Structure formats: C-alpha cells, structure tokens
C-alpha cells in the first residue's frame, strides 16, 4: 500500500518564542536549529525577520541545513503595495527556502484588528503570496483564527483559504489561534475546506488551550491536512502548540497513522527523540517533564507490583510501544506499591543477581515498605536504594562509622559591623578503629556538615576527590514544625561522570540531611571500590 507524505513544520523558534517566560538568545536559536535538523522535521520556522534584533541576527547568521528554513511575517498592510511595505520587504529579503505569512481569515478580525474591508484583506493575501512566489521560494499562508472565522462567516473564511491557494501558496494552514476548537469541529471544517483547496495543500496549526492540540492536529490529518505545525515539547503562545515530540512517535509507531502516512523522520531519528527533548529542556534551563508521553522519565516506569510481575515476564503486557523505539528506557520502581518482582527488576538493572526464592528478598521488601511508611521514597533515590539492597545482601563494607556530629549556627556582627550568619560543624568518625575529628565552616548547617564529613576520610579521601553536591531538595511531610522532613540530595562525581540521588528522613532537617550526605559518600566509595 502506498503511503501519503505528511509534512512536519516546526515553529519552536517563532510561536515557541511567544511562550511566556521563554526568551531565546541568538546562540540558543542556533543550537535549537541544529536540534531540529537532527530530529528531521521538514520545515523550521526561524522567526520574524525585522521584528527584533535577535531574529535579524539569527537570520543573518544561521539557517537549517536539512529542514526548509522558513521566515514568518504578516501579509502586506492594506492601502499599501507590496513594494511599499517595508516590513514585508524585510521578510522577502531573508535568505530562506520558504515564507509563512499570517493572514486574517475571520471577518470580525478584519474589521476590528486590521480596520480594513474584507476585500482589501483578500487583496493583501493574494498580493503577498504572489510576491513571495515571484522570488522563486515556497509560500504558505497561516489562516489565523480560521476555525472561529469559519463558524462566524464560513464563506469569508473559505474565500481567504481559496485566495491564498489560487495565488500559488504551497500550503494553506488552518490555525486554531485561540485554541478553543474541539476535534470533531476541526474534522468537520477541514473536510469542508477541501472543497476549495483540494489535494495536499492544507496544513494545521493548533494550540493546547483545551488540552486538545494533538488530538486536533490528528483530526485535521484524518480530514485531509497534510502538514502539521507544532513545537518541541509543546511550547508556544499561552498553553502551547501541538507537541511534535509526542506527535512524531504516534505518527511512526501507531498503525492508524504509520500504515497510511510517511514522514521525514527516520526510525533512527525517532530513537534520538528522548535525548532531543531533554537537550531542548537543558537549553530552556528547566527540568524535563518526568511524565511527558514517550520521552518522560516515568513514561515507561512501573510502580505497581502486579504490573512489574507481568512486565518481567513480557514487557508488552504493560507497554504500548517499546521504550527503546523512542530512546527511552523501562524502569521498574521500588516503593510501597512494589512486590518482589519490582525488587528483582531493579536489582537486575543494578547487576545484582538474586533468586526470587532467596529469603533476603522478603526482608529487603519488608524493609523498603517500612521505610517508605516512615517517609522514604526510594523511586527518587536510586543510590540509597542500591545501598539498602546491597547491605541486605551483605555486599557493602563498613567504610567508616559516624560516632557523632554537631552543628552550630551563629548570627553575629563581623569585624566591619555587618550582620552575618556562620555555620560550623564537627564530625567524629571511626575508620578502621582509628578516630578522626573534622571541623568545618559553611554557608549553612548542611554545607558545613558536608565540608566536615568530607574533610578527612583517611585512606578513602582520594575516592571522593571529584564528589560534589549539585542539588538539595527538602520536602516537609505531614506539615507543622514537628513534621517529618525528607531530604533528597543529588551528587555528581566529576571524575567518574556519574550522578546519583540519596535520601534522608527525620523529624530533624539537619539529621535528615546528614543521612543523605552519608549515603552519598558511601555510594561514592562503593562505586570507587567496584571500579
Ligand atoms: C497568531 C500569531 O501568533 S501571529 C504572530 C504574532 N507574532 C508577533 O506579533 C511577534 C512579532 N511582532 C512584532 O514584533 C510586532 O508586532 C511587529 C514588528 C510585527 C509589528 O509591530 P508594529 O508595527 O509596532 O505593530 P503592532 O504590533 O502594534 O500592531 C500590529 C499591526 O499589524 C497589523 N496586522 C496584524 N496582522 C496583520 C496581517 N495579517 N496583515 C496585515 N496587517 C496585520 C495590525 O492591524 C496592526 O496594525 P496597526 O499598527 O495599523 O494597528
Ligand atoms: C499563526 C499562529 O501562530 C496562530 O494563528 O496561532
């Protein structure tokens, strides 16, 4: 069966730049353009030449190599000719493969926002498309508010789409600009537009204001649209655009689409999609959404014992696609919802061989459940879990013992009269029967304890040289000042390029922090020893 070509149009660098809280620098735009080429989209909309210095510099410096590099702008202003519209001339002068012009297609907007007549707007659309086509490049029109416009005045909305098409636009893109349209309406209206724009010329641009951006894009495809616009990780104006990172796996892995369509993203590129999505979040300086479809850390994580038991027998029992297909991985979590199968799955991943009938496994499971009831959360603290498991199996040496620790916080005036807060910690350790005492100052009690703990580990000192704490999170369980505190610490061994999480729980925040610090050091020593 021959499959139809479906084109992917990325607007991360244009509509994505309209996301509140996101401001791309030129350098970031350059890196994102490279990510888009890596992903394999057909079009990459770079921004709006002439709208701001960042976009001007970006268009002067960089273009995508594989994706058709596209400039965005608006149709010519009414009452002016194309050659007499400086904004439009700037767009036409950009070094691109294609242009995408936003045009009004709702008569209410023509009247209120443009303040011109319906015919003048149609003339702007036609003249702009013709001028773009005359440059030898591809032209497309984003019909802004198409669905709301169609509901208000179907004849005029259709006239806008037809005018763009007749003037030579390769694509007429129907935009759900306010994001309020539902999938059935999209399907119905796109079907009707096919009467005036036949063939593979319709595109769809959806926003996620009702949580239907992807469903709406797919509904449009079902009705005949052959270009989908969207963004990396779904960023975009207000609630965002259709998320290409979710759409691409669906188009490639779900027979309802993969049997009917081919897209420009190869299976090998699909296997990079998790890493591309996370790299994009790095650029945005934010943590990836752990629950994101396909690419989230928990997308293939199972917590329930009954699921884990079946997954270990055959992963397909609880997975809709193979995690490897999207470059993700299966995770079997250990928590209070776990059974022995979860433990076995996690131990297997850690390279620990143990028989399901081994009674130590029952003790370990009981221990995990007891500690989870006290407030521990091992699914978030891989290293603390590994220590707990290996200890239960007698595989963790006693590197050092903490005899005591003390921490003092003092607020006082320094020599020049400024009010400062100073923390000082004392840690007493026993290493192979030899007693050691270290004192350190820090910018807070946990920092001081960390310094003191790591100051003198005797023969183990070299093994923690590259160790640094990179994140510290506190969560209060049960509320109130007598509450239980859970501390999660992320550590990084710069020499071994390894990251891990440890946990501590106590009614005392310093005590909880100290537990997590001690676990972190024990884990570093365990890994150094096995290396
Ligand atoms: C649905 C969307 O997401 S469309 C994308 C929107 N993106 C952006 O607006 C980001 C970039 N925009 C900008 O930097 C600026 O708005 C610019 C440079 C484009 C224009 O700036 P200004 O000339 O100062 O105009 P301003 O932004 O105040 O208003 C937009 C003008 O464009 C007109 N306009 C809006 N859409 C269109 C259109 N499709 N065709 C022709 N004119 C249009 C408006 O009527 C308004 O005209 P007016 O100034 O005579 O009232
Ligand atoms: C063009 C566009 O971004 C919109 O109509 O939503």
From TrEMBL:
Annotated CDD domains: DRE_TIM_LeuA3
Chain ranges of the Pyruvate carboxyltransferase domain: 6-271
PROSITE patterns: AIPM_HOMOCIT_SYNTH_1, AIPM_HOMOCIT_SYNTH_2, PYR_CT
Pathway linked to the protein: Amino-acid biosynthesis; L-isoleucine biosynthesis; 2-oxobutanoate from pyruvate: step 1/3
Keywords on record: Amino-acid biosynthesis, Branched-chain amino acid biosynthesis, Isoleucine biosynthesis, Transferase
Pfam families assigned: HCS_D2 (PF22617), HMGL-like (PF00682), LeuA_dimer (PF08502)
InterPro entries in the record: 2-isopropylmalate_synth_dimer, AIPM/Hcit_synth_CS, Aldolase_TIM, Citramal_synthase, LeuA/HCS_post-cat, LeuA_allosteric_dom_sf, PYR_CT
EC numbers for this chain: 2.3.3.21
Enzyme class: transferase
Catalytic activity: pyruvate + acetyl-CoA + H2O = (3R)-citramalate + CoA + H(+)
SUPFAM superfamilies: 2-isopropylmalate synthase LeuA, allosteric (dimerisation) domain (SSF110921), Aldolase (SSF51569)
Family that this chain belongs to: Belongs to the alpha-IPM synthase/homocitrate synthase family.
Protein name per Swiss-Prot or TrEMBL: Citramalate synthase
Species, as recorded: Roseibium polysiphoniae
Lineage: Bacteria, Pseudomonadati, Pseudomonadota, Alphaproteobacteria, Hyphomicrobiales
């Amino acid at each position: 069966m021959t499959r139809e070509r479906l084109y992917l149009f990325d607007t991360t660098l244009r509509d994505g730049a309209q996301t509140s809280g996101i401001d791309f620098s030129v350098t970031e735009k350059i890196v994102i353009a490279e990510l888009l080429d890596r992903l394999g989209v057909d079009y990459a909309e770079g921004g709006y030449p002439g709208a701001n210095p960042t976009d001007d510099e970006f268009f002067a410096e960089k273009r995508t190599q594989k994706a058709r590099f596209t400039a965005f702008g608006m149709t010519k202003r009414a009452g002016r000719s194309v050659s007499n519209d400086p904004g439009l001339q700037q767009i036409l002068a950009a070094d691109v493969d294609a242009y995408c012009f936003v045009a009004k297609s709702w008569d209410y907007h023509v009247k209120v926002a443009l303040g011109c007549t319906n015919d003048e707007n149609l003339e702007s659309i036609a003249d702009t498309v013709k001028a773009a086509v005359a440059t030898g490049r591809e032209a497309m029109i984003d019909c802004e508010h198409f669905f709301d416009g169609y509901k208000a005045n179907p004849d005029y909305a259709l006239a806008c789409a037809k005018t763009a098409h007749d003037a030579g636009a390769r694509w007429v893109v129907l935009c759900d600009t306010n994001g309020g349209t539902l999938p059935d309406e999209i399907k119905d209206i796109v079907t009707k537009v096919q009467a005036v724009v036949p063939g593979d010329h319709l595109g769809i641009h959806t926003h996620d204001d009702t949580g239907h951006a992807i469903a709406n894009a797919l509904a449009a495809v079902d009705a005949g649209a052959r270009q989908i616009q969207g963004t990396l990780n779904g960023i975009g104006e207000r609630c965002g655009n259709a998320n290409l990172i979710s759409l691409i796996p669906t188009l490639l892995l779900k027979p309802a689409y993969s049997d009917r369509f081919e897209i420009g993203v190869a299976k090998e590129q699909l296997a990079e999609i998790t890493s591309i999505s996370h790299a994009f979040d790095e650029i945005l300086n934010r943590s990836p959404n752990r629950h994101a479809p396909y690419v989230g850390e928990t997308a293939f994580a199972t917590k329930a014992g009954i699921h884990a038991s079946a997954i270990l027998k055959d992963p397909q029992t609880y997975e809709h696609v193979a995690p490897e297909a999207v470059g993700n991985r299966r995770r079997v979590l250990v928590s209070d919802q776990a059974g022995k199968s979860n433990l076995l799955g996690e131990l297997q991943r850690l390279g620990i061989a143990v028989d399901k009938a081994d009674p130590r496994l029952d003790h370990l499971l009981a221990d995990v459940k007891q500690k989870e009831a006290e407030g521990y959360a091992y699914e978030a603290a891989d290293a603390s879990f590994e220590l707990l498991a290996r200890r239960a199996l007698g595989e963790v040496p006693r590197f050092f013992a903490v005899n005591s620790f003390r921490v003092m916080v003092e607020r006082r005036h320094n020599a020049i009269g400024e009010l400062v807060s100073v923390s000082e910690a004392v840690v007493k350790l026993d290493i192979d029967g030899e007693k050691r005492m270290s004192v350190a100052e820090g910018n807070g009690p946990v920092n001081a304890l960390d310094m003191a703990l790591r100051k003198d580990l005797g023969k183990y000192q070299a093994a923690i040289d590259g160790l640094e704490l990179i994140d510290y999170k506190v969560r209060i369980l049960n509320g109130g000042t007598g509450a239980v505190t859970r501390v999660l610490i992320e550590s990084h061994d710069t020499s071994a390029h390894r990251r891990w999480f440890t946990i501590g729980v106590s009614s005392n925040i310093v005590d909880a922090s100290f537990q997590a610090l001690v676990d972190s050091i024990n884990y570093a020593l365990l890994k150094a020893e096995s290396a």
